[in-house]
Amino acid sequence: MPIVPSANPAVDTADVAALLDRGKTLSTPVLRTVVDRLAAPMDTVAAYHFGWIDEQGRPADGDGGKAVRPALALLSAEAAGAAPEAGIPGAVAVELVHNFSLLHDDLMDGDEQRRHRDTVWKVYGPAQAILVGDALFALANEVLLELGTVEAGRATRRLTTASRKLIDGQAQDISYEHRERVTVEQCLEMEGNKTGALLACACSIGAVLGGADDRTADTLEAYGYHLGLAFQAVDDLLGIWGDPQSTGKQTWSDLRQRKKSLPVVAALAAGGRASERLGELLAADAKSSDFDSFSEEEFATRAALIEEAGGREWTSQEARRQHTIAVEALHGVDMPERVREQLTALADFVVVRKR
């Protein structure tokens, strides 16, 4: 069962899979060539992170992620009337920034698993995770600027703005872990920065490289921003109730990290007995010296209180609401109907995914 039932259950998973595969097929060769520019051992560490090799350096066919962002970058080029190939540099640049953030986030959050494998900092150490993340960020700008066109300069400005917002969001996320209360509005602002900004960039960068004007790019960016909020809402649900076999993370992963994610914040704001009890437990958790040794049952209790207080259902509804806003934004762009349908299908996929 999907973690968020779709308002439009007729999601054609085969079509979506084809779009995601196209994004990988067109962008991965360029991505690998760009990553090969890194000095040793950063090239090896990055190759491990992307799933191209295992810990022993042997070729691997690892899970490199869903590749939603590259797929969106190629589609945005088509939305502007260009060939999908026009969006490849943008797809690669956005994927590099996304993975820069993953490398750093895993270290900051203490996550030991990503995509069913040990994370980079766990295998190669924190220093390599930081250095390789920094290097990927630098490469992202290099990939765009070396095109040497006016459109490349416009695309780079959008990417750097999105990157700064992404970093703002991560800083907010970390600070919220140490606060007893965070409002729903603050949580949505944080998630709009941390996830929405880069997805918004992915949805406009291909169009910019394809020659679109700012109005078209801004409208596609609005689609991507709200899609990002829907995406993060689903991530927040998976972070508590997701199947570890699908997500590649521990059970109750966000609760273990004391994250103030949407289900938690919505539950605390709901009022009522379950909300009050949850607030008491989380306040005690923040002061606990043995939090890391909590049992599965203790985390399950907190998850049950979040659900009883309505946090799970509110977040599911918010994912659907943001999905609707995203799809409606597409009506503001004159694009081939086939491309509109594909962007809608990707939005549908975001709210019914299991990982």
From TrEMBL:
Output the InterPro entries linked to this UniProt entry.
Isoprenoid_synthase_dom_sf, Polyprenyl_synt, Polyprenyl_synt_CS
Keywords attached to this Swiss-Prot or TrEMBL record, sorted alphabetically, are: Magnesium, Metal-binding, Transferase
Write down the superkingdom of origin.
Bacteria
Q: Does the keyword Acetylation apply?
A: no
Is Metal-binding among this UniProt entry's keywords?
yes
Coiled-coil stretches noted in the UniProt entry, renumbered to this chain: none
Q: Which family does it belong to?
A: Belongs to the FPP/GGPP synthase family.
Output the PANTHER family linked to this UniProt entry. (2E,6E)-FARNESYL DIPHOSPHATE SYNTHASE, GERANYLGERANYL PYROPHOSPHATE SYNTHASE
Q: What is this protein called?
A: Polyprenyl synthetase family protein
Native species: Streptomyces sannanensis
